User: Fold these one by one.
Assistant:
Number 1:
Amino acid sequence: MEFPITNKKDLEQKKLELIQWVAETGEEYLIDRMLELKNEPNKDWWDEISEEEKAAIEAGLADEQAGNFMSHEEARKSWEKWLTK
């Protein structure tokens, strides 16, 4: 999954902080895990979920396209008695 970068300067600062942290860490397991992450092929979460999960997501999207949904505010009002203590 990719996250949008809104500011290149912020991204460069994060990279520098990460480089410094990696250079200073004495935890071999962290370095090993980062190498695993680096070498993992990019995976699409869709390929990792079950057929049942895919069907549920597709059904929800179809409902949304058909206008069969309620807003967050409407849902909160509907379920309010169970949401508050």
Number 2:
Amino acid sequence: MPKKEFSEEAVPAFDAAPPVVAITGTVSFFVEEAAARARERLSAGGAEVLRFADDAPLGAAAEALLNRSLFSPRRLVEIDVSRLLGTDSPVELALAAFEAWARGSPAGKREAFRRIRRLLVALDLSRGTDPEETAAAIARKVKRPDLAEPLAELLRELPEEKGAGGATLLSTLRLLLERGNDGLVALVTAASPPAKAELLAEIGRKGLLLEVRIGDKEVDAALGRLALARAKEQEVRIEPAAIARLRERTDSDPAIFSAELEKLLDWAGEGGQIRAADVGEQVVDESSEVIYDFFDALGRRDAAATLARLERLFSGREIHAGKRSFDSEDDRWPQIFLGMLADEIRRMLLVLSRLAEKGAPAFDPRMSFDRYKDRVAPWLDEPLPPFGKSPFGGRADGYPMYKAALHATHFTAPELARALARAAEVDVQLKNSAPILETLTSYVGSVIAGGRP
């Protein structure tokens, strides 16, 4: 059975349910919300309900699945199995554990403990008896020696589990999948599981696998519920305007919103308050636009993505280009943008022309940046007669020139030359009050089409 979108209707009554029902999602709050609705539906009619949180002993959860209830013919066992599944990116999990630990709050420590347990599973490590030794092993595996010391501090305070039980719980869940529903159903939850978790794949085939998805139409209300619930738990007051500002700053991305909310709650502290101004000061603006994403789409000649990025660049967002930022509502922004675009096309044309010369090193678009710096950049930076200097000004080994070389592989020199020549015409049009977005859309479309209108 494939993964399905969660809804109450997708959860059957207890007697019709498969032996294992799994609910997954990117944000634990929404997974827990969905699990509560599934629990209510599955327990209707008098089922005994046993719940095990993420930090509960796994052996006890396995035992609950193996034994029958003394009080009811039906037993529903709810288990958070996030830590059993590991992660797609151990290094990101290690950094997340460190960041949560550094917050220093009780909530931050609980989050750090959850993440370090998942990290140990992902790296196939045990907690061990020596925190320094375990932390060093983690740091080696994720290639971040700087994390060894803070992770050791975290591991020293990690509560010891009574019996591992992970392998037992996994084998028990697989036994249930083979045995079928004989009066016992497992409701398992997992937040941000790895893409190829074997257990979830098995549940998808033999049980019921549901994914919580927050649609565009419901995201604002859902994030509002999340903010109010977490603020209540932490005894923090949060203004409605602050929630709206946080949605704006995180571009309504549930995972980013949730992470930034936790940082704000820790910052405010118990009994504190979060205002809209606080969000502006504490949270990086994720709704801003990065101009290099536009150049990447243009370099792929991906018309849909390029034009979508272009629209975002003129939607009132803050624009970032490396360490520089621009206000897209500034009257000067259209000319600034056109200048940056013309510079990128000029770089592409220059590097493409040089690499087409006799004796030039071969450039493969699959080439890594380090390989480019070793094999291609030194040749590009060689002085050209009769000028006695390189047209790249000794900066061919920079990342912008490497990206320009990658982008240029999708164009021909005549196409780029036509596009560059037309940039001057567009500049005149903009200075003569031509419609900004329409004029630039037409120009960008012509670049993708090979420099022709």
